[in-house]
Backbone:
């Protein structure tokens, strides 16, 4: 049996690398479309300030893009390093979307990024805009295929176990691609990325305005970010609700733990706004309820019940008991294959009858490799393992939602005062935008924890338990690789912060056009009525 320490360290290492990678990816997703908007205005109006906006924010996008690619490559190597049995067991399915992502999306994205940065003087305005649009499409296509792979882990349809190869195999690629869980994750995740990019541009622009520098540049950037951010946060909240509905269908355990719903309530179930969760006694000592809300959100009806944790455990207990038979038969077929003996058709028929519960039976491999020695206590332990800890799920979900509604409030105010034309007079609004800068990063990190921790104890929900997925490594090996990743990522993060801070402080003057704060020359600004000497150091 696999060491529990090895499993937990492998999980920790993947969590560290994935959470770090996710600091950069959403910002990249959103920045591309902001660049498309800005450059489109430049192509339509011919005003140089919009070209400068595209180039400056594109510079910050480029720094973030490089860090995202670097951290993503190291993260993917872990599938072979730390999760070898997972790669063996489901690699034919999980690997297909990742391969398509590399061939279709990443090559497109990388090529267009090159054209974006180096093609300004080599292409016409329209041609360069098309390259920017293709860059945005490539970036978002990359997210699509990765989230198709992840969505299959959450809702493994379009595949089945083959006892001849002892692996999961794809049966329907269209089902995997059109998996409702994958599609909901994609639209919700990219929308969250759009919010992050808008928040980033809004906050930096607000800082410039408070400093009284590059006013026309910052005003236009603030306008774009406010409108784009408001549309994006509304989309994120709506799509998050839809994602919750799909979770209620495919992952009832995750939904129940997110809501700390221990008992099955009469439909429609109430929503626990906050609660004092008592894990030891498996109940809430107290909770603030919103009547009917959870039932409507989770089922889109007034008469469908949402199962509570206790009833889910009863179902899982039965599936684990049935799974014992499936695992025992699988072990027999594996032994027959090793000995060159043909398995009896009766054994195969019996296995086919129980194979839907095979994954639940594999939960017992944490306690014994011999299904003949399974005890009621082991089944009870496996049943308790089948549900993740409730408190982390409950509170991370609420932090994510709280950040979402705070950003909705900020973007709504920003757009309102932008349309009124007096947002620059609202110093408190500009300061609030800066204070709220970390909000989208907090939200997406909490969302990742909800999605991935909520799937435990599975790497592939209901199919492959996490404790069976790891590579046969020593604990010391994983510790040293974890330390190596932490040091490497700390260096990368320091570089990211240094470069982003450097170019934000320089502002659009980093473009060297002579039109911005820190530069003092005669200029022609398309937004000025006439040409005159401007000392951009004034008003700092």
Residues:
């Amino acid at each position: 049996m696999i060491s529990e320490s090895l499993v937990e360290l492998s999980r920790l290492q993947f969590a560290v690398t994935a959470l770090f990678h996710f600091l950069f990816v959403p910002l990249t997703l959103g920045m591309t479309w902001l660049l498309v908007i800005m450059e489109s205005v430049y192509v339509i109006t011919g005003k140089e300030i919009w070209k400068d906006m595209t180039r400056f924010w594109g510079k910050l996008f480029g720094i973030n893009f490089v860090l995202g690619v670097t951290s993503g490559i190291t993260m993917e190597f872990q599938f072979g390093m730390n999760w070898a049995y997972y790669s063996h067991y489901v690699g034919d399915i999980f690997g297909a979307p990742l391969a398509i992502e590399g061939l279709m999306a990443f090559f497109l994205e990388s090529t267009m990024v090159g054209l974006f940065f180096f093609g300004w003087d080599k292409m016409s305005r329209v041609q360069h805009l098309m390259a920017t649009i293709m860059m945005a499409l490539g970036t978002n296509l990359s997210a699509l295929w990765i989230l198709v792979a992840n969505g299959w882990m959450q809702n493994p349809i379009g595949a089945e176990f083959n006892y001849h190869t002892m692996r999961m195999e794809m049966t329907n690629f269209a089902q995997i691609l059109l998996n409702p869980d994958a599609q909901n994750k994609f639209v919700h995740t990219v929308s969250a990325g759009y919010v992050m990019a808008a928040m980033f541009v809004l906050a930096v622009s607000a800082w410039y305005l408070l400093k009284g520098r590059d006013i026309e540049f910052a005003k236009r950037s603030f306008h774009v970010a406010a409108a784009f951010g408001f549309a994006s946060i509304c989309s994120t909240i709506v799509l998050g609700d839809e994602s919750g509905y799909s979770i209620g269908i495919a992952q009832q355990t995750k939904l129940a733990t997110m809501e700390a719903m221990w008992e099955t309530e009469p439909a429609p179930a109430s929503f626990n706004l906050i609660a004092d969760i008592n894990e030891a006694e498996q109940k809430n000592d107290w909770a603030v309820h919103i009547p009917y809300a959870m039932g409507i959100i989770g089922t889109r009806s007034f008469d469908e019940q949402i199962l509570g944790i206790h009833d889910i455990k009863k179902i899982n207990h039965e599936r684990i008991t049935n799974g014992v038979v499936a695992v025992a038969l699988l072990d027999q077929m594996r032994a027959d294959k090793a000995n060159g003996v043909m398995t009896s058709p009766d054994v195969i028929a019996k296995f086919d009858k129980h194979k839907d519960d095979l994954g639940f039976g594999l939960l017992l491999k944490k306690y014994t490799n011999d299904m003949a020695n399974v005890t009621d206590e082991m089944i009870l332990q496996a049943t308790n393992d089948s549900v993740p800890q409730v408190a982390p799920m409950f509170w991370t979900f609420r932090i994510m939602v709280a950040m979402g509604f705070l950003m909705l409030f900020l973007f709504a105010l920003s757009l309102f005062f932008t349309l009124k034309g007096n947002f620059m007079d609202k110093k408190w609004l500009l300061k609030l935008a800066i204070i709220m800068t970390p909000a989208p990063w907090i939200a997406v990190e909490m969302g990742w924890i909800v999605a991935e921790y909520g799937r435990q104890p599975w790497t592939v929900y209901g199919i492959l338990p996490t404790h069976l997925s790891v590579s046969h490594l020593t604990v010391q090996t994983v510790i040293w690789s974890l330390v190596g990743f932490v040091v490497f990522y700390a260096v990368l993060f320091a570089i990211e912060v240094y470069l982003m801070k450097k170019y934000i402080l320089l502002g659009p003057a980093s473009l060297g056009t002579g039109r911005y704060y820190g530069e003092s020359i005669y200029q022609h600004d398309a937004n000025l009525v006439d040409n005159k000497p401007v000392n951009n150091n004034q008003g700092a």
Observations:
- Residues 521-540 have pLDDT under 50 and may be disordered.
- The CA atoms of residues 262 and 436 lie 34 Å apart.
- The chain has 19 helices and eight strands.
- Strands lie at 159-162, 167-170, 271-278, 283-290, 458-460, 464-465, 520-523, 532-535.
